[in-house]
Amino acid sequence: MIALNTFIQAAMGVFRLYLFIVSTAQYPRPECAQNPNFYQTQPKKLHHPLSSSSISSVSITSSNTKSVQFFIRLFTFVTRALRFLCSHLAASSSSKFAGMKSIGRRGIHHLQKLNAASVPSELIENGQNRVIEASLTLIRERAKLKAELIRAMGGAEASTSLLGVPLGHNSSFLQGPAFAPPRIREAIWCGSTNSSTEEGKELNDPRILTDVGDVPIQEIRDCGVDDDRLMNTVSESVKLVMEQDPLRPLVLGGDHSISFPVVRAVSEKLGGPLDILHLDAHPDIYHSFEGNKYSHASSFARIMEGGYARRLLQVGIRSITSEGREQGKKFGVEQYEMRTFSSDRHFLENLKLGQGVKGVYISVDVDCLDPAFAPGVSHIEPGGLSFRDVLNILHNLQADVVAADVVEFNPQRDTVDGMTAMVAAKIVRELAAKISK
Ligand SMILES: NC(=[NH2+])NCCC[C@H](N)C(=O)O
Predict the structure, then answer these.
(1) Which residues lie closer than 8 Å to 405 by C-beta, 6 or more apart?
(2) Residue 114's pLDDT band (cuts 50, 70, 90)
(3) How confident is the model at residue 111 (pLDDT cuts 50, 70, 90)?
(4) Alpha carbon of residue 210 to chain centroid
C-alpha cells in the first residue's frame, strides 16, 4: 500500500512539473503569481463551486489550451480517485489508521505523524503535558515579573498587559493571522510614531502597558494537542495574567477563534457575564462553520451558549448570512449593520456599557475597518468603518474595560510598508489607554 502511494505521489510530482513547464512556457504567468507572497497567501480553498484549486495558480485562457486543461482535469480526477482508494484501503487494513480518519484534516496533523511513527501514546501524552506546563510557566512567571515591576513603581488600579495568541488554523480562509503578534508589537514601538496615545497616556510607562509574550501555540500543536485542550490552555494563560493584580489582558490574535477561550477565561475569573462590544464585518456566530465548532466564524456562538455575555453589541457588520441573523436573534445579539451606520452613529459613538455586570470586553476584528484603511486582512469586505469611526466609538465609550482582543490582522496580506500593522497597533495602543488606570 505504501509503495503504491509513493509511486502515485512520484508520478503526480513528475506530471505536475511537466504541466507547469508546458503552461508557463506558452503563457505568461498571471501577475499575482509573480508576487513573492503569492504562494503564502493562497487560500486554503476557493469558494466558487466552479473553480478548481489544482489549476488556480496557472491561469490559462487561450482557446488552443483546451487539451492541456482537459489533461489537468483528467489527471486531477484520477489522482484524487486513487488517493481516496488508498486512504480507504489503508484505513480498513490497519486499526492504527482507523481512528485517524475521524481526527480530520483540520488541525491535528502532528498527532497523525506521531501515531504513524508509532510513538507510544503514554510518551505523547507525557510530552503534551510537559509542553503545556512549560508554556503556562512562561506566562505565569512573566506576569508575576511585570506585576512586581508595576508595584515597585507605585502601582496602578488597572494595567494593560499584552498576550499574543499566534493561532491561525481555525480560519476558514487564510491562516496569516498566526503571524500577527510580532508584527503588531514591532509597529507599537515603531519610531515613526510616538509612545503617547491620543488622550495623552504614556505607553512607555509599565504601569500603562506591559507584555507577557505569546502562548506558544505552534509548539503545543506540534506535539499533537487537540483544539479542546489548546483552547483550554489559552483560557488558562489569560487567567494567569489576571491573577497578577493589576494586570488586565489585551490579547493579540490570531484569528477570531481566540475570542472564545479569552472571553470564557475573563468571565470565569471575574465570576459572571460581561457586556461585549464586538467590532467586525462578520457576526462570527454560526453554530459551527464547515464542521468546525472552534471556527473563527463561530466564536460568538460559543460565547453566547456559555453564558459569558449579558449583552453583545456587534458593530460594523456588512457580511451577514441568514444564519447569522437567526443566530443573532436567538441569542438576543444587538447587531448594528453598516448600511444603517449613519443613523446609528450617534448612539454608537456615545455608548455606556457594563453597569450591573463584571465588566466590559472589547473584541476588535481588524476587518471592521474599510479595506481602504486596513487592507491586511483575510476577508476584504468593502463598505466598512473609518479608522476615526472606530476611535470615536472607543474613546467615547463609558465603561470599565476589563480585557480586549485585536484579531484577524493578516501580515501576509498587508502592504509592503506595513500599513495595517500600524493600524492594528494603533487600535492596541488606544485600547491599552482605555483599559489602564
Ligand atoms: N472573523 C472573521 N474574519 N470571520 C470571517 C467569517 C467568514 C465567513 N465566510 C462568514 O460567512 O461569516
Answers:
(1) 250, 251, 252, 253, 254, 258, 259, 262, 362, 363, 364
(2) confident
(3) confident
(4) 22
Cα–Cα distance measured from residue 115 to residue 96, given in angstroms and rounded to the nearest whole number: 8
Mean pLDDT of 338-347: 98
The fraction of the chain above a pLDDT of 90, given in percent, is 71
Would the pLDDT of 291 be above 50?
yes
Cα(15) to ligand 1 centroid in Å equals 36
Pocket of ligand 1, beta carbon within 6 A: 172, 256, 282, 284, 296-297, 319, 321, 365, 367, 379, 408
Residues 6 or more apart whose Cβ sits within 8 Å of residue 281: 316, 317, 318, 319, 338, 365, 367, 368, 379, 381, 384
Banded pLDDT at 53 (limits 50, 70, 90): very low
* List of residues 6+ apart from 126 with CB closer than 8 A: none
Contact 181, 164 (CB under 8 A): yes
Q: Which residue has its alpha carbon closest to ligand 1 atom 5?
A: 297
Interface confidence (ipTM) of the complex:
0.97
Spatial strand order in the sheet of 247-253:
209-214, 159-165, 247-253, 401-407, 360-365, 274-279, 309-317, 334-337
Query: Three-class SS of residue 394?
Result: helix
| Residue written as grid cell 456587534 | 314
Q: Give the global pTM.
A: 0.79
Q: CA-CA distances (angstroms) from residue 305 to 273, 286, 309, 327, 408?
A: 12, 12, 9, 11, 23
